[in-house]
Amino acid sequence: MTDTRNGSVEPLGRRGFLGTLAAGAAVLGLPSLAEAATPGENGTVVLHDRVASHQAWAAYLREQDMIWSEVPTGFYESPFLGNGGLGAAVFRDTNSKRLKIEVGDTRVRDHQKSGDVRFGTARLRVGYFIVQTEGDLVEVDLRLSLWNAELTGTITTTRGTLKLRAFVHATKDVLVFSLTPDAEEKGIAFTFTPYPAKSTTLLYEKGPGNLRVNPEPTVEQTPEGGVCEQPLDAGGGHATVWQVVTGDDGLTRGLVASVAASFPDPTAVDTARSAVARAARQPVQRLRNEHQKWWHDFYPRSFVAVPDARLQSFYWIQLYKMACITRRNLPVTTTMAQWIERTPWPAAWWNLNIQLTYWFLNPTSHFELDSLTRSLDEHREALDKNVLPAYQHDSAAINRAGQEDLVTSPVGVPGIGTPEVGNLTWAMHNVWLTYRHTMDEDLLRYVVFPILRRSVNYYFHFLFEGADGRLHLPTTLSPEYAGAKDCNYDLALLRWGCTTLIESAHQLSIEDELLPKWQDVLTRLVDPPQGPDGLWIGADRQLTDSHRHYSHLLWFYPLHLLDPTEPGNRDLLERSLKHWVGFTGALQGYTFTGAASMSASMGKGDDALNYLDTLLDEFVQPNTMYRESGPVLETPLSGAQVMHDMLVQSWGDTVRVFPAVPGAWQDAQIHNLRTQGAFMVSARRNGGRTEYVRVRSLAGEPLKLAHSLEGPVTVRRVRVAPDGASPTDRPLSWQDLGDGVISIDIDKGEDVIVLAADQASNQDVKPVVISRRAKPWGFVGVLPRPEGPVVPVDLTAVFDNDGFTQGTPPDGNFDGSGYTYPANELPPAGNFRNGGVTFLFPGSTDGAKNNVTSRGAVIAVPHGHYRGLRLLGACHGGSVGADAVAAYADGTTGTVKISLTDWGRTPAYGEAVAVLTTQRIGTAGPQNFPVRIFHQVVDLDPARELVSLKLPNQNYPLMHLFAMSLESGS
Hints:
Strand order of the largest sheet: 13-14-15-16-11-10-9-8-3-37
CATH architecture of the domain at 65-301: Distorted Sandwich
Helix content: 10-25%
Oligomer: single chain
CATH topology of the domain at 65-301: Beta-galactosidase, Chain A, domain 5
Radius of gyration: 31 Å
Number of strands: 52
Distance between the termini: 81 Å
C-alpha cells in the first residue's frame, strides 16, 4: 500500500470497497421480518413487516404512480423512463399531432476541446421517434407503474384506440415500446428524426470561435427498422438503431431501440446494433421479467410513509427518478441526465447541482447508484490538473462545470479575479457522508482522505495571517452572487475540511505532516462574517438582494458546523434564514428545499412543510420535473431529502428520530433508513406519538439516540428470525441521558428496539392512513371524467358563425376582426374525444357555419336526466360568464352559468384546453398567435328532465360554442 500522506493511493481497480457498496442489499445484511424482541417483564414485542411481500409493495407503490388522463404536450408533462444511461420521454408532437418518443443517453456528448464545456464537450440531444398512426392523438389514459418501471395504458386518435406498453430495460440498453391497435388503427409505423449534434447552449448565446460544426447524420430507415449514425468532428460519435417487430397476434407493433456512444473509435453503430439484435431475439415477456426483477429488488431497501398523499407520491417518484438517471458505473449525472431539452447547462454543475442530487442515496442505501464517489475516485488525476501547474504538486479542485471525466477549466487564484474554489471540497462532503453512512474505512482511507487533503491544500496557498492574528482568505466567489474576502462559502468548507482531515487521520492512525496546519486553521481561522441580519456573503459583502443559492449558509446546512440547538447559533440561523428568503425576485425551487432542511434542523416541522409546499405549488412540474432555463434535476431530488431531514437526522453525534415532523403528520412510518454511524433505523408515529424506534448497527459505532418517545422507555434486544439467534448474550447496556436522549452500547450486527416502558403490544411496519389527499402526479385533467353515459348533441341547426379557415384569405370571421382558427390544426369533423367525453366536432368546409354564438339561441336536446353539460367553446373580446336558461319537461326553468375564456388566453374559469393551435388566420395571412378551444363543464339538475337550453343573449364579449354533450346521471 502506498503512503497516503502525499495523496498517492492504490487504484480503484485493486480495491473492493466500492464494489461492496454497489452490491446493494447484500451490504445491508438485513433480516426478513417478523422479528421478535427478547421477552422482558412486559412480554415479547414482535415487529411485523406488513410491506415485506412483493404483493404489498406493488399495492403500496400503485398508490404513488403517475397518471395521465390529459395528453402530455411537452417534456415537463411527459412520462419518463431510464436505466441510468438510456432514457425516453413520451408526449404529443406539436407539429404532427402524433405520439413522440424522445430518446437520449447520459453517455452522448461532444468531444471538442473548445475551452468551454457548455459547447465543445456538451451533452448532446439524440433524436425522437414519431408513432405514425392513422389519426391525430387526442386522448390518453396512461399509468407509469413505479413498481414495474413501465408505462401502460391507451392512446386514442381521431381514428381509433391503441394499447401501449413501454419500458427502458433496467440492465440492457434497449427501449421496448409496443402498441396494439383496434380495427381502425392498423397502419402503425415508426419514423426517427435526429437532433443536430450541437450544444443547446447555442440557442442562448454564440459559441466560441474555435467551435467546429459536426457532420450531418446519416439515416437509413425502412418499415422494419433503421440506423442513424452521427459522427463527430472530434472523432467517434453516437448512433441510434431500432427494429420494428410484429407480435404473435399479428396486430401489435413493437419498437426495440438502442442508443450508443463511442470515442474516439467509431464503434457506436455496432454497439447499438448488437444490443437491439440480442433484445429482439428474446420474447418481450422475458425482457420484461428481467427488467422488473431489478426494480422489485430496488425498492424494498427502505420504506417511508407519510399522511400527505402528494408528498408521499412525490418522494417515491424521486427514488424512481434517481435510478433512471444514474448507476455507479455510468457518468456522474448532469443537470438534466438523459432528458436534454432546451438548456444552457448541458453539463455537470459542481457548485450545488451535483451535491444536492446525490444526498438522497445514503439514507435509502442505494449505493449502486453512486456514480459521484466512483467518478471522483476514478478521475482524480483530472482534479489535480484543474488547478494551475504551479499548484498541481499538492492540490486539486474542480471548477463550476464539467463532464463525466471531471475535466474543467482551471480554477483561478484567490485574490486575482473571483475564482470559485470550494466546489471540490463540497463534493467531498458528499463522499464523506457516504463514508459516515457505511463506516467503510477503505472509503475513508483511499478516497475521502487523499482527495480532501489535496482540495484543502489549495486553500493553504492563499490563506494569510491578518493584523488581527487570525487566518483570512483573499477574494473568492460565493457561487452565483459575488466575490468577497473571507467568503463564507469557502470559510465553512475550509473549516469542515480541516476538521474532517484531523478526525480521519485519527481514525486511520495516520501521522500526517499537515496535522499541525489543520489544527492551526481550526484555532485561528476567522469567524464567519455576519451582522444583525445574519451571515453575510463575506467580510466585505453583505446579502443585499435576492439570491437563490444558500452558499453563504453552508455553516448550518449541510455542513452542520454551527449547531442550531445552541441558542446563539439558533438565533443566527433564524436571522440569516429570514433575511435570505425575505428578498424576492431570484428565489428558485432549491431555495425552498434549503430553507426547509435548515428549518428541519431546528425542529421546525411546520416551517419545513410550508417550504416544501411552496416548492411543489410554484416550481415542480406535473411530472415532478423542475426547470429554470432548462431541466434541472437536483431540486426535486433535494426536496425528497428534505423529507428525510424531517423524519430522521444524524448530524453531530446523535441520531434523531422524528425531529421535525409537522403537526399535520400525526402518523408516519420509516423503516431501514440508514443514518450516519451505519445504523438502520425504523420507527412508527401514530396519533401524534412515537410508538417505537428500532435500530440495527452495521458497524458497532457508539449510539446516541434522541428517540422522541414520551415518558420512561425501555430498550430490548431483537432476536433475528428465523432461528431466533442473538449476536451476543451479554447484558444489554444503555443509559438515559435526559431530555429524551439515550445512549446504547450496541455491537455490530446487533438489533435493539426502544419502547415506552409500559408498552408491550405488537408493532408494525406498514403504510399510514392518508389525511391530506391530492390528485396524482402525471398530467391529470382539470375537469372530472364523466361518471355516466355521454350524449352528444348536434348543434348544426343553430350554428350562426364561421370560425374556421382552410387556407388564406379567411372565409370566416370568428372575432369580428377577420381572424379565424386554422382548419388544418383542428380535429376532423365527427366524433372527437376529450377528457373522456365524445363530442360532435363541426366540419371546416369553406363557407359553412361551425359554431353558435351567445345571442339567445335555443338548443333542443334529447329529453333526459343529466348531471352535467359539457361544452367545447371559447370567447372573443375577453372572457365572460353568463346565465343560460335550462327548460325542463315539467314546465319549469332554471339558470345555469356558462363561463368561457377568451380564445387567445389561458383558462380563466378552470376549463381544460381541448384544442391549441400554433397560429390564427387573418386577412393578411397566418399570425403566430396561439388560440384555443376550451372544454368546460356546467352542472345541471339531474332530478329534472331537460328538454332545451337557451344560450345567454349578449354581444361583447361573445361566446362561441362548437360542440355540446350531456352527461347522464341521477
